[in-house]
């Protein structure tokens, strides 16, 4: 079993608390496949958090990291230390979350690349005074300076994959960074601490404090912390926003929402179903961009359902470390909530589940949930963080749009159909990230981040977020 470590001022130390809110349902982080203990669920005491916060504050006040001239060399060394650990990062996610090895390698593999290209992390920010000219005359100067100590709150589903870019950008812009992993998927951060130690990064510049909601609250509420990066639920994001509002502390939050998947009359049903199954099985459905509400034109409903059943029946359930597996188990920490949502939906009048047939689910202790549509004859808007979505039948494009927008948050929407009709959806659905007649895992070609739909996010952890601009007029 792995020993979990905090990483404080360059030293590994064991968290002192094992009895806390998130550990009440079990004392161990469990392997998603076997339910064998992986590590003890652990939380950081306030004395240790205060130490980490004070160290970060002192580094920021001294400007020792801000003025460090060896950042390029340090990040290159970090890249060299991270590279051989990529498969170990992925293995940690396989165990903690159930993520397929191939997916986890992709999520965690970008670190060395960006560490060797600091321009990607800082994006032309000037950390030295730059003269400002007006009609050929110097009229002032400006530069960017670090915003101050950053707290990064990592999600459960893609713990290192989501948090690492925020950590690296914060550091590259001259800020000390404290990261708090999810209590259910913390083990990849042990490996990250090892990489920082071997790269001989300055002590205290990067720190790790393990724990659950209470640790997150404490770090977010500290006046020594100057900005917050959060990836997680909309509910959690609101709590963070409330805490930061009284001091106007900057926050960058990527949350989720009730994401609609719209299939219009005349759509390429085979392509639509393939995209739906891909999006429902990404990280075994534990995917912030995954669909929660599937909306299908009534004339396409029956053939759509049959194609869906057939495609789900082709999935290979199994060990996420096996390259032949196409769907792994659900993270233990997310399972209770997801099961409760499924039970609620199936308790509604006239609801029923649609999934594949003759599914070959392994006889293991972990829980596999096949991609499932739950037909509803009334609107239900829920963020379903698993391979589950509600299914609704509509008679028109306008009805589909109305149903899609009956929620407070849409991170991403999908629409399939004739271009003349998908255009109506694109113009009307209340989100800023839409896949039209295809599945796109990223946002290629964008020079700036997309905006958020409703309560699906706030701010962006771009280089601008991690710096302040100082302007002097002569």
Automatic annotation (TrEMBL):
Domain of life (superkingdom): Eukaryota
GO MF annotations in UniProt: oxidoreductase activity, acting on the aldehyde or oxo group of donors, NAD or NADP as acceptor
InterPro entries: Ald_DH/histidinol_DH, Ald_DH_C, Ald_DH_N, Aldehyde_DH_dom
Domain Aldehyde dehydrogenase: from-to ranges: 31-461
Pfam family, one: Aldedh
Family: Belongs to the aldehyde dehydrogenase family.
Record protein name field: Aldehyde dehydrogenase domain-containing protein
Lineage, uppermost ranks: Eukaryota, Fungi, Fungi incertae sedis, Chytridiomycota, Chytridiomycota incertae sedis
């Amino acid at each position: 079993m792995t020993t979990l470590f905090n990483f404080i001022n360059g030293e590994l130390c064991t968290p002192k608390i094992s009895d806390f809110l998130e550990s009440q349902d079990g004392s161990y982080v469990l392997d998603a496949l076997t339910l064998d203990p992986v590590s003890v669920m652990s939380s950081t005491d306030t004395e240790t958090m205060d130490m980490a916060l004070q160290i970060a504050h002192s580094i920021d006040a001294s400007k020792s990291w801000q003025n460090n001239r060896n950042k390029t060399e340090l990040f290159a060394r970090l890249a060299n230390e991270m590279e051989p650990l990529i498969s170990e990062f992925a293995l940690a996610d396989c165990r903690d979350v159930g993520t397929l090895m191939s997916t986890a390698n992709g999520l965690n593999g970008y670190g060395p690349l960006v560490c060797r290209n600091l321009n990607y992390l800082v994006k032309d920010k000037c950390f030295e005074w730059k003269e400002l000219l007006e009609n050929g005359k110097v009229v002032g100067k400006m530069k960017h300076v670090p915003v101050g100590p950053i707290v990064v709150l990592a999600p459960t589903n893609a713990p290192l994959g989501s948090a690492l870019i925020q950590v690296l950008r914060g550091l590259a812009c001259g800020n000390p960074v404290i990261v708090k992993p999810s209590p259910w998927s913390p083990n990849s951060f042990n490996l990250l601490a090892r990489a920082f130690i071997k790269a001989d990064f300055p002590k205290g510049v990067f720190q790790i404090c393990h724990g659950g909601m209470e640790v997150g609250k404490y770090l977010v509420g500290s006046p020594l912390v100057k900005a917050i990066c959060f990836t997680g639920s909309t509910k959690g994001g609101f709590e963070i926003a409330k805490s930061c509002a009284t001091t106007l502390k900057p926050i960058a939050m990527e949350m989720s929402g009730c994401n609609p998947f719209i299939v219009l009359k005349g759509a390429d049903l085979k392509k639509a179903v393939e995209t739906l199954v891909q999006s429902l099985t990404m990280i075994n459905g534990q995917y912030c961009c995954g669909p929660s509400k599937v909306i299908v034109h009534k004339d396409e409903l029956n053939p759509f359902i049959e194609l869906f059943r057939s495609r789900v029946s082709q999935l290979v359930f199994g060990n996420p470390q096996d390259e032949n597996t196409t769907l792994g188990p659900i993270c233990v920490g997310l399972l209770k909530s997801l099961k409760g949502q499924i039970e609620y939906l199936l308790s509604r009048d006239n609801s029923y589940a649609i999934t594949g047939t003759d599914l070959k689910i392994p006889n293991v202790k972990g829980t596999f949930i096949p991609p499932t549509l739950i037909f509803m004859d009334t609107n239900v808007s829920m963020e379903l963080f698993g391979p589950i979505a509600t299914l609704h039948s509509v008679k028109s494009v306008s009805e589909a749009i109305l149903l899609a927008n009956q929620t407070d948050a849409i991170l991403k929407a999908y629409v399939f159909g004739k271009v003349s009709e998908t255009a109506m959806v694109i113009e009307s659905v209340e989100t800023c990230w839409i896949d039209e007649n295809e599945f796109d895992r990223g946002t290629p070609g964008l020079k700036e981040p997309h905006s958020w739909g409703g309560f699906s996010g706030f701010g962006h952890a771009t280089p601008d977020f991690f710096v302040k601009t100082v302007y002097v007029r002569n």
